[in-house]
């Protein structure tokens, strides 16, 4: 995470992220302790506690604080979002899906523990995520907790992340043959942006946001999630050409459709900038100091180098 300073508030984004990642990691450790059955919990914790950017939990906590809520109210949901993220990566890496042997710089979950255990541990994380929200969210009316459970289930389920994965699988390794921008955007909005949307909406609901504020944060997070993926596609090209002769981005080898392939690197970055502006516009009505983390996060997503 590089320095990302907003000129207005001199907000120290790096320090903010390091602090939030630290408290989220502690909360994750406590939410999925090493208890019976020990082996199953080891497998769950291997992926859950490995190094990640923790974007969804941070968005959830930041949205809660933006609307005046207490961070601790949103922590179980923030952890649940990371549990769901971890299980989706575990399942995505399986031989029957993307067949990736490496994740976050370590052997993938199924490489270490075997496919069958990895599938089961993924389901366990998914169930634990909803249990954690329902059981451990404190200080808000039960109706808000039900709303969060329902938003999350919808956004990760058959209308959300799962729909995005199904669309992606449909095109397999030959995405580029018949895929247009519209289909590519559908995949990214569902596979990636839906989780960021769930994170912002959960944080906002628990923080006591009005319906209008929830909708603004929903739009912010959809733009941020989509632009994350546009920039990811661009980084895949720029990293690969920088490392030419060493390795090549997996998606390039597989011949997948990406934003740079469909519209070129320059136009892809222009699109990412446009999405960033649209995301940040949604925050204009809020207290600028409280909005600083989400403004800086959007800047970081566009300008990151990895
Ligand atoms: C969610 C019920 C349910 C099932 C999962 C396998 C599957 C169905 C979906 C695949 C979802 C997937 C792999 C989406 C990609 C998300 C994404 C942008 C991953 C990379 O996120 P980073 O870069 O990763 O934030 P780190 O490692 O930093 O956490």
From TrEMBL:
Molecular function GO labels: geranylgeranyl diphosphate synthase activity; metal ion binding
Q: What cofactor does this protein call for?
A: Mg(2+)
Could you name the domain of life of the organism this protein comes from?
Answer: Eukaryota
Entry's Gene Ontology BP terms: isoprenoid biosynthetic process
Does the record's keyword annotation contain Chaperone? no
**What keywords were assigned to this record?**
Isoprene biosynthesis, Magnesium, Metal-binding, Transferase
Q: In which pathway does it act?
A: Isoprenoid biosynthesis
The protein's matches in Pfam families, at most eight in alphabetical order, are given as: polyprenyl_synt (PF00348)
Which ranges does the record mark as transmembrane?
none
Q: Name one GO cellular component term.
A: cytoplasm
Task: State the family it belongs to.
Answer: Belongs to the FPP/GGPP synthase family.
User: NCBIfam families annotated for this entry?
Assistant: FPPsyn
Protein known as? Heterodimeric geranylgeranyl pyrophosphate synthase large subunit, chloroplastic
């Amino acid at each position: 995470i590089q320095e990302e300073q907003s000129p207005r508030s001199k907000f120290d984004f790096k320090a903010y992220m390091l602090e939030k990642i630290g408290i989220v990691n502690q909360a994750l450790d406590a939410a999925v302790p090493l208890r019976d059955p020990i082996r199953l919990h080891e497998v769950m914790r291997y992926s859950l506690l490995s190094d990640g950017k923790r974007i969804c939990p941070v968005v959830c906590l930041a949205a809660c604080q933006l609307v005046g809520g207490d961070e601790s109210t949103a922590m179980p949901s923030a952890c649940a979002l990371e549990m769901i993220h971890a299980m989706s990566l575990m399942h995505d890496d399986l031989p029957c899906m993307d067949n990736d042997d490496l994740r976050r710089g370590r052997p993938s979950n199924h490489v270490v523990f075997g496919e069958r255990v990895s599938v089961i541990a993924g389901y366990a994380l998914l169930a634990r995520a909803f249990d954690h929200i329902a059981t451990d969210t404190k200080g808000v009316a039960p109706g808000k907790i039900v709303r969060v459970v329902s938003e999350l289930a919808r956004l990760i389920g058959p209308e959300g992340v799962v729909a995005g994965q199904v669309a992606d699988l449909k095109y397999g390794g030959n995405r580029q043959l018949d895929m247009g921008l519209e289909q590519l955007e559908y995949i990214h909005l569902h596979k990636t942006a839906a989780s960021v949307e769930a994170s912002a909406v959960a944080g906002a609901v628990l923080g006591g946001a009005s319906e209008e504020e929830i909708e603004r944060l929903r739009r912010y997070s959809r733009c941020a999630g989509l632009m994350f993926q546009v920039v990811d596609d661009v980084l895949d090209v720029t990293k690969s050409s920088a490392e030419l002769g060493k390795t090549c981005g997996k998606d390039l080898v597989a011949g997948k459709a990406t934003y740079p392939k469909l519209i070129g690197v320059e136009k892809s970055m222009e699109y990412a900038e446009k999405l960033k502006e649209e995301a940040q516009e949604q925050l204009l009505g809020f207290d600028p100091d409280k909005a600083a983390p989400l403004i800086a996060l959007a800047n970081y997503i566009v300008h990151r180098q990895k």
